[in-house]
TrEMBL record:
This is L-histidine N(Alpha)-methyltransferase. Residues 7-313 form the Histidine-specific methyltransferase SAM-dependent domain. One of its GO terms (molecular function) is L-histidine N(alpha)-methyltransferase activity. Its EC number is 2.1.1.44.
Amino acid sequence: MPHSDFATHVAQGLGQLPKTLSSMYFYDDVGSQLFQQIMGLPEYYPTRTEYAILQEQSAAIVAALRPEAGPFSLVELGAGDGLKTKLLLRELLRQQADFTYAPVDISAGAMSGLAAALRQELPTLRLDPVVEDYATALQQLPTRPGSKAVLFLGSNIGNFGPAERLAFLRQLAAPLAPADRLLIGFDLQKDPRRIRAAYDDAQGITAAFNLNLLRRINRELEADFDLRYWQHYTDYNPLAGAVRSFLVSTRAQQVQINKLGRSFDFAAWEVIHTENSYKFTRPQIEEMAREAGLRVAAVFQDTAGDFADVVLAKM
């Protein structure tokens, strides 16, 4: 029987040294619920900070995104529950902008939920949901009539390593015309203690979120990870601007994964690397943009300088 993408990923990630699992698999139903809790934690500043930026500066952000005239498409990669995006949608509707909102998600279930909520809350909104992966949605972008504004909010860009990030930015830039715009959320470098605390909260919700990845493997791949012998660990390197999250084996152990038909050995204190979350400076953002063939058109920050929503255009 062929492996699912998840099974293939787990087999590859645990079969190498150092062992890795991708953060993209955090978000099963339990993981998604835990992340909703994380976003409300006092230590976790990114969500509420970006929300405040979009709430307080929505008119200026919309002005930087929309074309001077004519219809346009507002395409969002990874719309989630649309909480922050609704601030921009309401402002665009208030301005009577001629636009269509096209949220993109690979999950048909997630998309149907968002679409139903938007039709109820914003009944005059022209909605064109896209159930595709990002790459396919971007390839389809030039076929949309009029100008385009592409959203990638929530500091998700920080989950890419440097080489992946540049490749992704170039992929975003490729289908853009000179009048099109791209809005990306960047978490900025700040007090290293605040950054680390955001990924290792006092209540242990982030630890539960990370450990849930092992529960998912147990459930979906019939594994026998014993969570009593695993712990969450995170660190922040201010020189690299990188938060790194790990699952740590607290003893020598062997884990059987039945659906893979194999077992994996772990030494005492061996780690599984599960996530990177990079933080940026303004000069780094400008340099990344240049390397991807983009220029910074506008920057919207909170007063403390914790977070930036950056509007980019093709060079």
